[in-house]
Structures are given as C-alpha cells and as structure tokens.
Amino acid sequence: MSIGQLVWKIAVALYLLANGILGIGNNGDYREIFSVLGNDTKIFVIVAGVISLIAGVFILLELFNIKIDIVNTLIFIIAIIWAVFVVLRIISALGSFNVEVLAQIAIYLMVLGSLLVASGKFGD
After folding, report:
1. How does DSSP classify residue 26?
2. Residue 10 CB partners (closer than 8 Å, separation 6+)
3. Mean pLDDT of the region 3-20
4. CB atoms within 10 A of CB 94
5. pLDDT digit string (tens) for 17-69?
6. What pLDDT, on the 0 to 100 scale, is given for residue 123?
7. Counting beta carbons within 10 angstroms of the beta carbon of residue 105, is it exposed (0 to 12), middle (13 to 18) or buried (19 or more)?
8. Coil, helix or strand for 27?
9. For residue 62, which phi and psi values (nearest 5 degrees)?
10. Are 24 and 48 in contact (CB under 8 A)?
C-alpha cells in the first residue's frame, strides 16, 4: 500500500468514525442528511451513525491486515445515503448558485468519491 492509499484510508476511517459518534448522538452530517425527512429522524441518524462507526473501525482494522468481509457493504450503504444527500443539495442549490456553494458541493463530491472507492464497488 502506498503512502497516498494509507493516508486516504485513514481519512475515510476517521470521517466514518467521527460521523458515527456524532450520528449516535443524533448530530453531524447524518442529522443534516436526514433532516429532509422532517423532525422525526432520530432513528435514521442513529442507525447511520452505528453503521458508520462500525465501518470506520473495520477500515482501521484492515490497516493491520485484519480483513472483515462486510466492511465494503457497510461503506456502500453510507455511500448511497451520501449520494442521495449530494443530489438533494445540488437540487436545492440551483436557485442560489455561487462560488461558496460550488466549493461545498466539491467537498461533498470528494467525500462521495472516497466512500464509493472505499466500498470496493467502483474501483481502487
């Protein structure tokens, strides 16, 4: 594994761990993602947080050559949730498109790309 791949895996793992912890507390990115469903989103946020936390731990374990088969599926589930969020953010930004919005969408797309690659479903 190259230094770039190592740093990338650590970054994805830390992102998932942090958002997992925040999600379990009904906060973070998953709260924002599921806010489109209305006020009663706590269970969705917590479930996504748990999945994210587990996936983050599994990615870190893979750095020590401990392979866990379900990790790719868990990351793919998070990637699907994130993709829906990105599409909704792009649609909502169409009316007020500016450089700040473009920068934020770019960040969302980088996270989505990292999740898709980490899931093993769309390349290495």
Report:
1. T
2. 60, 63
3. 89
4. 8
5. 999 999 999 888 888 878 876 767 889 899 989 988 998 898 899 888 888 88
6. 60
7. middle
8. coil
9. -65, -30
10. no
